[in-house]
Design goal:
The structure holds two protein chains of two kinds.
Chain A (H helix, E strand, L loop, with lengths): L3 E7 L3 H12 L4 E4 L14 E3 H5 L15 E9 L4 E7 L10 E3 L2 H15 L2 E3 L4 E7 L2 E7 L5 E9 L6 H5 L11 E10 L2 H7 L7 E8 L7 E7 L3 E9 H7 L3 H9 L5 H4 L3 E11 L10 E2 L2 E3 L15 H21 L4 H13 L1 H8 L3 H7 L2 H18 L6 H12 L2 H18 L1
Helix pairs in contact in A: 1-3, 1-9, 9-10, 13-14
Chain B lengths: L47 H6 L2 E3 L6 E3 L2 H7 L5 H4 L5 E4 L2 E4 L9 H5 L5 E3 L7 E3 L4
Antiparallel strand pairs in B: 1-6, 2-5, 3-4
The chains are: A alpha/beta, B alpha+beta.
Chain lengths: 431, 136
Amino acid sequence: MPEKFDAIVVGAGPAGIACAYELAKAGVNVLLLERGEYPGSKNVMGGVLYRQMMEEVIPDFHKEAPLERPIVEQRFMMMDRQSAVTFSYKGLEWAQEPYNNFTVLRAKFDQWFAQKAVEQGALLICETVALECIVEGGKVVGVRTDRPDGDLYADVVVLADGVNSLLAKGLGFHKEFRPDEVALATMEILKLDRKVIEDRFNLEEGQGCTIELFGDATKGILGTGFLYTNKDTLSIGVGTLLSGLIKHKIKPYELLEYVKTHPMIRPYLQGAEPQEYLAHLIPEGGYRSMPKVAGDGVLVVGDAAQLVNAIHREGSNMAMTSGRLAAETVVAAKARGDYSAATLDAYRQKLMDSFVGQDLKKYKDATHHFDKFPQYFEAYIPMMNRAAGTMLTVDGASKREKQKKIWRDIGSAKQKFRIARDIYRAWKVMK
Amino acid sequence: MSEATPAANRGQEQRETPGTQQAPGPQPPHGASGSAAVSAPAAKGSTIEEKQYLLRFNADTKSHLHVTDADVCLTKCPDKLCTIFCPAEVYKWEDVRMHVGYEGCHECGSCRIGCPHENIEWVYPKGGHGIVFRLG
């Protein structure tokens, strides 16, 4: 008789671990499968972990989790080739409890988080690939793994197998993604003395800063770059839609080098030693790309369900919330002894009622809009830079002359109308 | 972490023989060794070869990536986009065929989604194999 669990969770990332943790805590017999050598060994993100959604799983986690730095300042750089207009918010309320977010290094953090699930009673098995769902009579009853005699059975299977989610695709929950539904991000982690980091980023001891990079960071292609402070490393990366790299025939690692050596960025990285280079896809299709998330005996969570808010670079928080809501649903299903699609659909409803569904809906057209109209990144950010440069350069010209020059730079009446229309359109897809 | 040994397998040809374990992935450029870039700190880790060198791989003996129809690459795909957008330079065009250096794969999935001819069979490496991120 093959082994049977109440639940199998495939994938030990934020969604899968949060789900397994909650299930184990509720007394559900849960198996957490991970294909890597250890949880985190295949997992990549820029590095921002949100306190609220993590705390909804493990209260006071920050007192023991391997975190890098609490973020006290978020900067946004609108970059041109030789200049940048920077906005920032720094708030000291973020430097103390309850905190807003933290940078983390995933290989360390995910191992710790998975260990917490194990302490709750989850069984973690690594180095095991779930090849497909076992379906009997239209119902998912387990997973086939790449281990000898590797069929594992459960009342419910939770797919937390990440952006590629071959398992959800195998069930027909989504078609293959298009290159404009995923962003390819590359990043590097560079070693730098912690005191140097604090001096360079204007931080008190232990505090952190994030910088998001727009415009020339991606050579005008839709996407963003980022530079985050860890304890004694920096994370720098750049992500663009895969379709953008294809269209412009740009090699992702050359784009990463372009960002690293950009005159607005290079001074931050001076003397920092590369430690690791990482590439990963980010699901950016948003609401319109979401697969079916609940079926007979199966739920889909995290990146596998395309739960990313690309505009606000949020994903790990949505992953954890989805994992938690999936667990709640499974616990209720277990109590009723009913794992049918109709019962498990409560997960979809909870998800769509939460901030996850609300935010995905709010920005459902945003990525598509900025992809379709490249002028925001290609033309308007350089224009903003020229305007700031003109206005702030003291060269004897009167301020009114400068305003006229900026107005002329915007172009003809027709172009001004076009910009006004684009601003309105941007507001419409973001409101 | 395993130290890559540049002297042991420098050059393209030897990449044809996959390592059984702890494969170092792509090789450093000719004339470079593990510490060659020290004299020019700004350039350290700047090439894809050097970036890949920072990584640990536990390569399987079998490839998890397969070109479905080699003829499609040769006759129907002038741009060979996978050689451009693959973040690990896994795909290299060698005269008449696509060389797939699966040992250095980040398992991101871009090639499966980005190949305009849907000509790449993509699965995960065997459990415990492939790339092993230590930090990020």
